[in-house]
C-alpha cells in the first residue's frame, strides 16, 4: 500500500447514521456494474415494508448504504445485508435475492433484537441465512485512557 498517496475519507453515502436501536444495512451500490444496484434498491424497499408490517420498525432502521464488499461475482443476486447495533455483534449476509421471500430476514431481525449481545450460532439463524453468512463480527470494545467504552 502506497502511504504517500492521500486516502479517500469516508463521507456520505458511506457514513450511515443510526437513529434506531438496531440497523439493517442493504448494499445499494453494485461494484460490478459501476452504478446503483437495482436489486439492492428493490430489496431495500421490500425489507423496509416487511419490517414495518412485522411491527419491528421502532426497533430497526433499514438503510441503504454504499458497497458492503460482500458479493464476489455479478450473477444477478448481488445483495448483501448487514445487521448492527451498539454493543452487539455485527452480521453480514450475502447472495440475497430480492425476488425471493424475505421471511428469513425478518425472522433474523426478531432474533437479533432479542439477543442481548447479538451473538448467535449458525444453528440459531433461519436456515436460508446459515448458508449465506459472510461474517459475524464481535462488538467492538474500545479502551481509552479514561476506561473501556463501547
TrEMBL record:
Q: Which InterPro entries does this UniProt record tie to the protein? A: DUF1636
This protein is called DUF1636 domain-containing protein
Q: Name one Pfam family in it.
A: DUF1636
| Species assigned in the record | Gemmobacter denitrificans
